[in-house]
């Protein structure tokens, strides 16, 4: 079998998973479950041989361990298929959500953004926070693609003494996008597993995203002051201020408003709404701008470059979902409150601390956050540990976001290591202090909001 045929088969299977999932959601036909589950098993079997290193071993382990657990439970075929389907929402999101980023890359927007950046971010502190905030905003729409886009703006001129600090800003900015972007796998997983609308948790996540900026600045304040003394910012030739690109700002705001409106008006899962909006809204915007050539090129790049590059994540995420489903079949979640009852602390606090430690600690050694998050979101009833679903969602997303900058296996750290020509462990290690502080802030934030907002804590 030629490589072209194999590539076509792999692409067809992945698209088939998304199509069958969409039809299943629209029709609610349970008879599609065996077909969807079978497609997941076929996709994993096709893609597993292409994986390398830790990802390959983890994927194989999840499939083998999941199968053993289900065999020990003597689970029926329907349970196997249901377990395989758990993370198909993420595969569907991977296929459609990146289309939102096509208009963001319009040349006129990028050039205007470069002018805004150079004219307004003049001090080291402003450059640091501006880089983090811009990466967060751009990351919401173009995911990891925000890193090279913002990097090129930042380093259009030399930044003496600021290289690693700006690497931290890029890293943490992307982590901030994980917190609240409706287009990320993290949000799709958590909201679908807990049955929550995105709007119900958005205010709390935006608050946490703002806090992440403050924590990041405080953690690196001494280094910023030192850089200001050792290497003062270069003088700006054009001292006139430049406004944020109006067209880009309008697109970003409109894209969020569209999702918010659709969630209120259409009774469909968030992933379905994002797929619908991702197909139509960027297309309409590019048509109105007379930029169909950019749109067509963006779609082509997505199908031929982005999706093949995501095969590693797709395979791992599907396998992690199956493993989570197999653990759920053992009813392990009912044992958690019993175990927590032996600790002389409030169950909600104990569970929150252990969750942060589990997700952060596993990421530190290279395990993708989707593994523990999938297991926890799918296997634990939040009410059984004295927390609300909204509290649980913020806890999981907050833990995922703080763990991403310290993971040596994260796509962002590996991308930054290549851009800055430094070891990946150095890029991750410079964020350990930030992650530790964010963990403490997250736990305090959860307790305070839980006291102030009844629906959050109950």
Structure notes:
There is one protein chain. This protein is mainly α. 76% of the residues lie in helices and 0% in strands. It has helices at 3-27, 33-47, 53-72, 77-84, 88-96, 107-120, 124-142, 146-154, 163-180, 185-194, 198-219, 221-230, 246-265, 270-289, 292-309, 311-329, 335-340, 347-364, 370-379, 389-403, 411-420, 424-429, 432-452, 454-457. Helix 8 (146-154) packs antiparallel against helix 9 (163-180) and helix 11 crosses helix 23 (432-452). The model has no long low-confidence stretch (mean pLDDT 89).
From the structure above, extract its key features.
458 residues, 76% helix, mainly alpha, globular
Please give the alpha-carbon distance between the first and last residues.
57 Å
What percent strand?
A: under 5%
What's the mean pLDDT score?
89
- SSE ordering: HHHHHHHHHHHHHHHHHHHHHHHH
Number of H- or I-type helical stretches: 24
By DSSP, the count of extended strands is 0
Low-confidence stretches: none
- Helical amount among residues, as a percent range? over 70%
Largest sheet entry? none
């Amino acid at each position: 079998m030629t490589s072209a045929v194999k590539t076509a088969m792999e692409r067809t299977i992945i698209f088939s998973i998304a199509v069958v999932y969409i039809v299943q959601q629209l029709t609610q036909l349970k008879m599609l479950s065996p077909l969807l589950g079978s497609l997941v098993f076929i996709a994993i079997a096709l893609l597993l041989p292409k994986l390398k290193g830790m990802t390959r071993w983890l994927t194989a382990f999840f499939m083998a361990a999941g199968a053993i657990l289900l065999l020990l439970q003597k689970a029926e075929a329907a349970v196997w298929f249901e377990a395989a389907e758990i993370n198909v929402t993420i595969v569907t999101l991977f296929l459609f959500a990146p289309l939102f980023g096509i208009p963001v890359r319009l040349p006129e927007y990028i050039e205007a953004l470069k002018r805004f950046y150079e004219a307004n971010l003049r001090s080291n502190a402003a450059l640091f926070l501006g880089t983090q905030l811009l990466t967060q905003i751009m990351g919401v729409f173009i995911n990891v693609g925000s890193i090279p886009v913002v990097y090129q703006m930042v380093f259009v001129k030399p930044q003496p003494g600021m290289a690693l600090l700006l690497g931290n800003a890029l890293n943490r900015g992307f982590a901030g996008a994980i917190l609240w972007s409706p287009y990320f796998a993290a949000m799709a997983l958590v909201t679908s597993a807990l049955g929550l609308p995105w709007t119900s948790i958005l205010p709390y996540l935006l608050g946490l995203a703002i806090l992440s900026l403050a924590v990041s600045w405080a953690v690196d304040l001494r280094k910023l002051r030192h850089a200001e003394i050792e290497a003062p910012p270069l003088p700006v030739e054009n001292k006139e201020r430049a406004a944020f690109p109006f067209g880009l700002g309008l697109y970003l705001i409109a894209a969020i408003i569209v999702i918010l409106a659709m969630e209120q008006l259409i009774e469909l899962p968030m992933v379905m709404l994002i797929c619908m909006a991702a197909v139509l809204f960027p297309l309409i915007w590019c048509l109105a701008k007379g930029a169909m050539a950019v749109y067509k090129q963006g779609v082509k790049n997505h199908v031929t470059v982005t999706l093949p590059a995501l095969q590693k994540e797709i395979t791992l995420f599907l396998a992690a979902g199956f493993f989570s489903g197999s653990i759920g079949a053992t009813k392990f979640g009912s044992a958690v409150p019993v175990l927590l009852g032996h600790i002389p602390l409030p169950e909600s606090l104990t569970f929150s601390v252990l969750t942060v430690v589990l997700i952060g600690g596993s990421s530190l050694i290279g395990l993708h956050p989707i593994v523990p998050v999938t297991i926890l979101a799918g296997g634990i009833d939040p009410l059984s540990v004295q927390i609300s679903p909204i509290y649980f969602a913020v806890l999981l997303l907050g833990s995922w976001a703080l763990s991403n900058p310290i993971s040596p296996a994260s796509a962002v750290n590996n991308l930054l290591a290549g851009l800055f020509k430094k070891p990946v462990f150095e890029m991750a290690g410079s964020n350990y202090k930030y992650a530790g502080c964010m963990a403490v802030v997250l736990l305090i934030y959860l307790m305070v909001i839980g006291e102030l907002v009844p629906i959050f804590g109950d």
